[in-house]
Structures are given as C-alpha cells and as structure tokens.
Design brief:
- The complex is a heterodimer.
- By secondary structure, chain A is of the alpha+beta class.
- Chain A contains 5 helices and 5 strands; from the N terminus they run ββαβββαααα.
- In chain A, strands 2-1-5-3-4 form a 5-stranded mixed beta sheet, with helices on one face.
- In chain A, strand 3 (about 50-55) and strand 4 (about 55-60) form a beta hairpin.
- Chain B is an alpha+beta fold.
- The longest helix of chain B has 28 residues, at about 125-155.
- Chain B folds into 3 domains: about 30-215, Aldehyde Oxidoreductase, domain 4; about 225-295 and about 355-430, Aldehyde Oxidoreductase, domain 4; about 305-345 and about 440-719, Aldehyde oxidase/xanthine dehydrogenase, molybdopterin binding domain (Aldehyde Oxidoreductase, domain 4).
- In chain B, the strands form 7 sheets. Chain B has a 7-stranded mixed beta sheet, sandwiched between helices. A 6-stranded mixed beta sheet of chain B has the order 14-22-21-20-15-29, sandwiched between helices.
- In chain B, helix 11 (about 375-385) packs across helix 12, helix 14 runs parallel beside helix 18 and helix 17 crosses helix 18.
- Chain B is about 30% helix and about 25% strand.
- Classes of the chains: A alpha+beta, B alpha+beta.
- At the A-B interface, helix 1, helix 2, helix 3, helix 4 and helix 5 of A face helix 6, helix 8 and helix 17 of B.
Chain lengths: ~160, ~725
C-alpha cells in the first residue's frame, strides 16, 4: 500500500511516499542512496543488511518500511560522528577485523546492538549475539577482539 | 540467458596481443617516470612448473608503475582486491624498493582501460608471480630517480642514496631533492633492464613488516563501493527469469501480468526474459508474476549416487608420478591399508553475490563488476554484444569475496546485453538462490588409496587414484620407494555428462580433496603401525622443509607422543599448496549423542618463503582455517539432477562465530627464499586435520567430507 512514511535516518528526518510493504534494505539502498547496508541473502540469515531501529539491530531485508514509521534508523553511514570513527569502527580497523569488507557494515551495526544489551560483554555473550552474522573470509576471531576492545573504549565514554 | 549458453573463456584462450600499445599509452599519459614491466618470464616458469600449456605471454608490458609530478607512486595492474590484502602487500613492495612512504603509493587495479592486461586474480599468484616483477620495476624506477638526482644535484650516483621520497647526498644529508621535484615536467619511459637489483632482505624497511589493511577505513564506514553500489542516472535493476534446473528448456511464458506493474519493463528475446524497474525489489516481485513452463530433463543423479556415476564416467587415468615397483612394495608390506574417500560438491558462497552494472552507449560499453578476471569479462562482453573489444571497459570496484567463484561472469554478460537492449544502465545482481544455482561448485570427487608399511613403520608402497578433484596436491611428499599417482580428470571441470552442472576452481582447487585423502590414509597407517602420528610422518619424510614445518607445529601445540586413538581428540595433517608448506594440528571435541564436533584449537605452521606482510599472511591463514571448517563439517550442495536444492544459508551452513576454535599461527622465518602463495595453502589441511582429530577422539574414521553430525552418528553406530 502506498503510504507516506516518516522516520529519522541517521538523525535527519526523512519522508517518502511509497509502498510501505517494501523492505527497508531496498529503500535505503535505492530511494535514499545509502549503499553501505548490503544485500547478502534476502532472507535474514546472514546479517549483511543489519541496521539499527531505535538502537536495536534488525535485518533490513526483512523489515517492511511501515515498521520504521516514526522511528530512528541508523545505518553504517550514520555511526561516525563529526568525522570521528565510532569506537567499533576504530577497533575493526585496528584489529584488521575484516577482509573483503562486505559483511562489515552489518557486523558493526549488530555489534552496536549487542553492546547496547551487554555493555560489559563476556566473550560468550559476544559470540551468542554475533552468531547469526556471517563472514566468509574468516575474520571472526578478530571481530570478537575488536568488539571487546570497543566495549572498553565506550565504557570510557569515547 | 541459460547457464548452459554461457561458456566462460578460459584464460589461456584469451588473445594475447596487448590492446594498449605503447604508442597509444604514451599519447595519453601525463608527465612522470613510467616503468613498464611484464610478468611474462615468471609466468612462463610458473606454467612450466605447473605443467600448464603455455599461452603466448604478452611481449610488451602488462603492468606499469608511475611516479607522478606530485611525487605519488601508482601501480597500475589488472589484479583485483577481494579481501586478500594485495592492495596493502603490493604497495609495501613498491614503497620499499622506491624508498618511499607506503601512504604515497596508490594501487590502481582491475580497470581494463587504465591497466594493462592481466589474466586474473587467482592461484595465490599476486605475491609470488606478480610481486617479483613489481619489485624489479620499483628498483628500476629508483635507479632512474638516482640518475635524475645526480644530474640535478651534480653529484655522482654512487654518492647518492634515497629515503622517504628524496634523493639524498650521502655525505651531506641536507643536500637533497624530492622525487616530485625530479619528475616535474618530464616524461620518461623505462623497462626493467635486469641490471638493477632488488633489495636484499637485510635492507628491507617496509617489506617483511606487519602492516594493517589500507582499505579498512572505507570498509568500516560504508564508503567502500562494491559493484552493486554504483549508481548511474536512469539506471534500471533487472531480474532474469531462471529455469528450475540446469538443462531445462523454456516452453512457454506468460508475461502479461508482470508487464502491468507500473514502471516495469519486460524484455523477452527467445528464452531470455528479464523484468526491469527502477527499484530492484519491484523488479523482483514483478518477476514472480511471470507464469513460465519449462521442460525439465529427467535425471536420477543426486548428491547420494553421484559418486557411482562419476566413477562410471571417469576418463582414463593419467599417471603423474611413479617410482619403483608397486607389486614388489605390496609383497614386502607387513600391513596394508585400502580406503576410498569422497567429498561432496561445495559452493563458494561469498557474502557478496555476483553483481554487475553495465552502461552501453552507442558502440561502447562500460561495466562495473564483481569479478576476479576483468579482462576475461571484457572479452566476454565484447563477444556477446558484437563490439570491438577495445570498446568495452570493465571496472572492478571492491569485490566482496571470490574464492575462485568470481571467475565466472554470466551476470556481467547479462547486464551488458540488457543495457544494450534498453538503452539504459542496467544492474544484474544475483539473489542468494541464483548465487547457488549458477555457482561453479568445487567438484564432487573420489580418491582411492592402497598403501602399505614395513615392520619398521616405513611406508613401502603407495597407489593413489584421484577422480575429478584435479591434480593440484595429488602428489605426496613422503619418502616412499614404490609409488604411483594416477589422476582421472586433471581439472576442476569435467567432460560433458560427468557433473550435472558447472564446476570450477574453489580456494586451493583439488588440494583440499587430495590432502584430506592422503593425510587420513597416513594417519590410518600410523595407527596400524602403532606409531605416534607426528613420529610416523617424521620417519617417512626426508623433505627438510616439511620436517621443520611439522616439528614447528608440534612444538607450538605441545604435542606429546601418543598412540591413536587416544581419546584426546588430537589430529595432524600436512600439505603443500602454491609452493607453501603447511602443517596443522587440531584439538576437537565430539558429542557422541548428537554427532556434533566442536573444534577447540588449531595450530598451523607455514613456510611460505619471504613474507611481504606478516600480518596479512597471518590473516589469510586464519581465514583459511575458518573457511576450511565449513567444507570439513557442514558444507554440501544438495541436488537432484540439474535442480539445485540448496538455495540459501539455512540449508547451506557456513562457519559461524560459535564454531571458531582458538587459532594459533606460526610463519617460519625464511626470508631469503622466494615468496610463495598465502591465500590458499592453510585451507588444504582442514579436512584431514579434523577427520584425524575426530578419529582420535572417538575412534571412528570418516571417509567423506563434510563430516556432518549425521554422518558421525552413523559412523559411531557402526562401531
């Protein structure tokens, strides 16, 4: 159904009139031109399309646009503030926690959500929280280290 | 377009004439020092070693480096970056040979208009084949700078040195001139003369030192562009009607309902039907409105009986190694082990599916594509469109994983075809289902081995037969007096009538299957001899490099001699791939009730000669070990005839965070030796090391990959 949808995208209000059953992923990537969020499997198995809706991770390939009406959506493009990388982004860079980088935006957004739930995460909590995000290159152990380091950094208020 | 209508060009068949002639090149090039070089010689010697028939290699140049008026150094190469980190390691080589900062090196990669021809990025060849040529070119460029510096400073070359982008008077350091200043207004062309030598390892400042990736910041901010992220004005997203099975024939298609969707354009040319829209999701939902009937060929071949079928249709074997007398060996054996090993079809499954966007304007085509071989794609597009090949440009942005799978370019050809038909830029991006359907899988394969040992625990005969995996890794490296290795189908592609769909190179092609079989067999013989598996290998090895690698792994692991199965869950495996020697030791836990395996720890030692970026090499080893868990434990394509029943990650399980073992890697210091491959070797041991550890844990031997929980339970039941 064609509807007017309003939400905040990376802190900025957006409004668009389109079929509200369309999946958020495609609206972000095409209508709104934010290509950092990736398509991986289209059926919410892999997590490449993960974004935050009100600070919680969702699979944008399976989130109809109507679900974000009046909510706040954050994508990878909205994570760095004032040109300064978010501690998660910084830790991914420093730990070489990526190779091809295609799953990376989804990994970082999901990690953000995990840390929201567990600000002082154990390794087991990180693994549990990240387990449905897939990486084919095999950066997993480095991603876990990066998330641990970012958690400590965020605790210090950075 | 049907898959069977797409026949990819093999790289050996490509035209070898340089399309970018030197004259054309210099017409357009700006000021700078250019060193034009070819990997011809190192490629030829590599091909000789691999037994590959030689194509005529480009006689002119197939890569060049440029030092610009701004002092920046650029390397133009047809290689691509798909996560393996060459954008970092190749930059390190150049910076070091030129005595410049790594930050001042730009890698211009995979653009067929800007870069000279390259056969593609695969086979762990960028560092070991391309690298030495690049370093020589860098050294040559440095010498040119010294000559220019000598003229400028009026000081003889012998009295000069270079550092941080400057030519400097050795006797008076403030007497210096920057590369940028020396290049200003000049246009100099050089070819490596072979007279200037590259740096000795003792002179390295940047090479052989760890450096983090240079492309991370773009990748963590979402700025990095992959093929699917390219946006062009007026572009359309296409979804192509696909058959339910390979080999199907379209009988009838009703497109009327799809056509009615607002903004949708339906293209129908023969059995090629595509739905296009300005939104990809609308194109996809409209495609589902097409009612199509296909004639699907009947086939009883499936993932269970495929092995019988393959053995039945196997071509004649080719003996690739032979020594001594097998019969005599067999007569002298105290014990004999005979076994057959299998592996199922495995998919590449990069997280980025095959994607391309094409823009055809007049008789010119520009394509942005996720591909490992842009120059092959260029020829394929030219052939499809009937364009002269110089009118096709393929640009390779970041590639979201390849593993050998992105050497097939069907999506690129389709995007180009649709762009020509619609007159608009068109994107074709596979769904995950299409990604599985069109993947050229790692072939299902069979290995039969009969081998024996003397009463002193020496292997005295080895009769090895490999079907359909390919030749890579088929030859053993043990000291065996009587042995014969026979390869039935030496490539990853089978003759028509063998595999029901396409097969292709999958990270370390052939070697995963061969190493699984060989190292399982070795461990079975060790058990039969009652000798510790590390000790058994050592007493059957004379290759010093392998002995050192195995001893290093054993020491790091804290290996204590044992007789298998010990119940501890420890396994060993050795392998050689792309010139690199690997030894892995794993610790696993097996849940006897569920059949689930948890790999707790993997120690991997590797001798890869000179390492350009130890951090990058370590990451590749970790990636290999992690990816290898999948083909060892879970990855298997399910099919019935040409119908691929595996369509997404719910049924095709790739390694997850919770599967990860503790990974410890050791790279053996050997920097005076030539660099060897790094992107593939460590994966080859994963099947065997896990199989051997499972055997040590619960006393059952798995002969088929993947070792799924069901197969393990089944094997446990039989004991």
């Amino acid at each position: 159904m064609t509807e007017r949808i309003r939400f905040k995208l990376n802190g900025q209000p957006v409004e668009l009139t389109t079929d509200s059953e369309r999946m958020l992923l495609w609206v972000l990537r095409t209508d709104l031109g934010l290509t950092g969020t990736k398509f991986g499997c289209g059926e919410s198995f892999c997590g490449a399309c993960t974004v935050l809706v009100d600070d919680l991770a969702v699979r944008s390939c399976a989130t109809p646009l109507k679900n974000v009406q009046d909510k706040g959506v954050t994508t990878i493009e909205g994570l760095a503030k004032g040109g300064k990388l978010h501690p998660l982004q910084k830790a991914f860079v420093e730990h070489d926690a990526l190779q091809c980088g295609y799953c990376t935006p989804g990994m970082i957004m999901n990690a953000f959500s995990v840390l929201k739930k567990h600000p002082h995460p154990t390794v087991a909590e990180i693994i549990e929280g990240m387990d449905d995000n897939f990486c084919r290159c095999g950066a997993h152990n480095r991603i876990i280290q990066a998330i641990q380091v970012a958690a400590k950094e965020m605790e210090r208020g950075n | 377009m049907k898959d069977d209508q797409y026949s990819g060009l093999e790289f050996l068949e490509q035209p070898s004439e340089m399309e970018m002639s030197r004259r054309d090149f210099f017409k357009t090039a700006g000021a700078g020092i250019y060193v034009l070089f070819t990997i011809g010689d190192s490629l030829v010697s590599w091909q000789e070693r691999q037994g590959i028939p030689q194509r005529s290699t480009p006689t002119d140049f197939n890569a060049f480096l440029k030092i610009g008026e701004d002092g920046r150094i650029a390397c133009y190469t047809g290689k691509i970056e798909m996560g393996q980190g060459v954008v970092t390691s190749l930059g390190q080589m150049l910076a070091d040979e030129l005595d410049a900062e790594v930050e001042s090196v730009d890698m211009v990669m995979g653009d067929t208009d800007l870069c000279p021809w390259d056969m593609g990025t695969f086979g762990s060849m960028s560092t070991r084949i391309f690298g030495p040529a690049l370093r020589t070119a860098g050294a040559e460029a440095r010498y040119v700078l010294l000559e220019l510096g000598s003229e400028h400073l009026k000081i003889p070359v012998e009295q000069l040195t270079t550092a941080n982008g400057f030519v400097i008077d050795k006797t008076k350091k403030e007497n210096r001139v920057s590369y940028a200043q020396l290049v200003k207004g000049k246009k100099i062309e050089r070819h490596p003369t072979g007279k200037v030598s590259v740096k000795k390892p003792s002179e390295f400042k940047i090479m052989n030192k760890s450096l983090t990736r240079r492309d991370s910041e773009e990748k963590v901010t979402g700025k990095a562009k992959y093929a699917g992220d390219i946006r062009l004005p007026g572009m359309l997203y296409a979804k192509v009607l696909r058959p339910p099975a390979h080999g199907s024939k379209l009988l009838d298609a009703d497109i009327s309902e799809a056509k009615e969707v607002e903004g949708v354009q339906v293209i129908k040319e023969g059995d090629f039907i595509a739905v296009l829209h300005k939104y990809p999701d609308v194109a996809e939902s409209s495609l589902s409105k097409i009612k199509a009937k296909f004639d699907v060929p009947k086939s009883d071949i499936d993932d269970k009986n495929i092995f019988d079928h393959l053995l039945k249709v196997a071509p004649e074997g080719k003996v690739v190694a032979k020594e001594g007398d097998l019969q005599a060996g067999q007569n002298g054996a105290k014990a004999t082990v005979e076994a057959t090993y299998f592996n199922d079809y495995v998919a590449h499954s990069p997280i980025e599916p095959h994607t391309a966007i094409a823009q055809v304007e007049g008789n010119k085509a520009t394509v942005w594509a996720s591909t490992q071989n842009p120059f092959t794609a260029k020829e394929e597009v030219a052939r499809e469109l009937g364009f002269a090949s110089q009118n096709v440009r393929v640009i390779t942005p970041f590639v979201g994983g390849g593993f050998g799978g992105k050497t097939r370019n069907l999506q690129i050809v389709e995007a180009a075809r649709l762009s020509k038909m619609t007159g608009k830029p068109v994107q074709v991006a596979y769904t995950r289902e299409e990604e599985f359907f069109f993947d050229a899988f790692r072939p299902a394969a069979i290995v039969k081995i009969k081998s024996g040992i003397t009463d002193r625990g020496k292997i005295n005969f080895w009769d090895y037969h490999v079907y359909f995996a390919g030749e890579r890794g088929a030859q053993h490296f043990y000291d065996i007096p009587n042995h014969c290795t026979t390869v039935y189908n030496s490539s990853w592609v089978g003759a028509a009538g063998s595999h029901p769909f396409a097969t292709g190179p999958w990270r370390a092609p052939g070697n995963n299957t061969n190493t699984f079989a060989r190292e399982s067999q070795i461990e079975m013989m060790a058990a039969k001899a009652g000798v510790d598996p590390v000790e058994f290998r050592l007493q059957n090895l004379t290759d010093k490099k392998m002995i050192r690698v195995l001893k290093t792994a054993a020491e790091k692991f804290g290996w204590k001699p044992m007789k298998g199965p010990s119940g501890q869950g420890f396994g060993v495996a050795c392998g050689i791939d792309a010139g690199t020697y690997v030894a892995s030791i794993a610790h696993v836990e097996v849940n006897k009730t569920t059949g689930m395996v948890q790999v707790k720890r993997v120690v991997c030692a590797q001798d890869m000669g000179l390492v350009i970026n130890p951090e990058g090499a370590t990451i590749q080893m970790e990636g290999c070990i992690t990816m290898g868990l999948g083909y060892a434990l879970s990855e298997k394509v399910v099919f019935k005839g040409g119908e691929i029943l595996t369509s997404n990650f719910d049924t095709y399980e790739i390694p997850r965070f919770s599967w990860l073992p503790k990974i410890e890697t050791v790279i053996i210091e050997n920097k005076d030796a030539d660099p060897q491959g790094g992107g593939e070797p460590a994966i080859v041991t994963m099947g065997a090391v896990v199989a051997n550890a499972i055997y040590d844990a619960v006393g059952v031997r798995l002969f088929q990959l993947p070792m799924t929980s069901d197969r393990i339970k089944e094997a446990l039941k039989k004991t």
